Amino acid sequence: MATPPGFHARRAALRLLDAVLRRGETLEQAGAAALADVRKAEDKALARAIAGETLRWLTDLDGLIDGATARPLPPDAKARQVLRLMLAQWLRLGTPPHAVLATGLELLSAGPRRLAHGVFGALTKRGAALPEAPTLPDAVAARWRDRARAIAAGLADPPPLDLALRDLSQTAQWAARLSADSLALGHLRLPRGEAVEKLAGFADGAWWVQDLAASLPARLLGAGDCRHALDLCAAPGGKTLQLASTGWQVTALDISKRRLELLKDNLKRTGLTAGVVRADALAWEPKHRFDAILLDAPCTATGTARRHPDVLHRIGPRQIAEMAELQAALIERATGWLKPGGVLVYAVCSLEREEGEARAATVALTPEPIRAEELPEGLASTPEGWLRTDPGMLAEAGGLDGFFVARFRA
């Protein structure tokens, strides 16, 4: 019997979900294997969208399922996994219930199929709905404390498309050309779903994709005036491009060959230059000291939950502690590579205090507070002079990723 259209995309979404929840993989890591037999680009995108929305709303989807079953299904039961996907398609992607049933039930055998059919049918008949904002897992809400509710509201939808301009002085012209909004000099914001490669300016290297929050650490170093900067853990290169475009002589260091290739591609496309070094920052020794170091450190990336909702379910105390240990080692090395009077900017795209505030408090340099005039309207520094952003901020303008940034001087 032939499988219904769209079945392969749903099966791939199930594989993605299983990889995240059972094996702790990222959606990106799981993609190659999970999508191997999905041929069409639109079906790959659909599979990712189904899995992403399922993970974004997982707690609420489970609440609906548990409210429609006499006995709770085990967390890893295949029937629960498939029902999660089915409900996400109906409630988040607007797929008609009959189409959800036609593709979803094919993923199950006899008994579980009847169960899933009954539960889904009961929920559609009663007009089940999701809340306005996703409910965070209890452990995540506890970590994010008093900001948890506001952050959750910022996670309700995938983010818009942010671009960073090579020439900051052209902000108004590019905003008009692309019908984009701008929240800061050199920043453009478009609705999500735009085909990046087809936008004006892509082929000419006039801009690159970079979330507004991710652009803030490099902005805090100001103009380079041909001074030397080290972009530590640089790939895939957005901050390297920023520094190069504002007059810094940049050394971009990273350990990942694949990610450095992306950096080199972006340098070529934009016509910007930087010295690219593949090395382990914990073993590498520079030939000279630097006027500025940007350490956007490896982290749990929980601040990117808008675009990577898998972090809500993969990250816990063990991963946070491991990253904090690595960050401490990188900070210790970076502080020794600065010239007298040089500036270190430390940043992480994490919402965890252990990776942000706790790390900044240990830096053996003089704090240089971040000033209000250095930030986009609507953002402010903390009493310590640090910057903390999260997805609940600038909500009316489309939000931004979660980042922690601190600046110091040698």
Radius of gyration: 23 Å
In CATH, the homologous superfamily of the largest domain goes by the name Vaccinia Virus protein VP39
CATH topology of the largest domain: Rossmann fold
Overall 3D shape: globular
H/I helix tally: 16
User: What's the CATH class of the largest domain, please?
Assistant: Alpha Beta
Strand content: 5-15%
SSE string, helix = H, strand = E?
A: HHHHHHHHHEHEEHEHEHEEHHEHEEE
Tally of separate domains: 3
Total DSSP E strands: 11
Helix content: 40-55%
Structural class: alpha/beta
Low-confidence stretches: none
Give keywords.
410 residues, alpha/beta, N-utilizing Substance Protein B Homolog, Chain A, Rossmann fold
Question: How would you describe the overall organization of this protein?
Answer:
With 410 residues, the protein is an alpha/beta fold. The chain has three domains: 7-125, NusB-like (N-utilizing Substance Protein B Homolog, Chain A); 160-210; 221-409, Vaccinia Virus protein VP39 (Rossmann fold), CATH 3.40.50. Helix content is 41%, strand content 14%. It has 16 helices and eleven strands. It has helices spanning 7-23, 27-34, 41-56, 58-66, 78-91, 97-104, 110-125, 138-144, 148-154, 171-178, 212-219, 238-245, 257-270, 311-314, 317-335, 357-360, and strands at 161-165, 187-190, 207-209, 228-232, 249-254, 275-278, 290-296, 338-348, 366-367, 387-389, 403-409. Strands 4, 5, 6, 7, 8, 9, 10 and 11 form an eight-stranded mixed sheet that branches. The chain has a three-stranded antiparallel sheet with strand order 2-1-3, with helices on one face. Helix 12 (238-245) links the parallel strand 4 (228-232) and strand 5. Helix 1 (7-23) crosses helix 3 and helix 5 (78-91) runs parallel beside helix 7 (110-125). The protein is globular, with a radius of gyration of 23 Å. The chain starts with 6 loop residues before the first helix and ends with a strand. The mean pLDDT is 96.
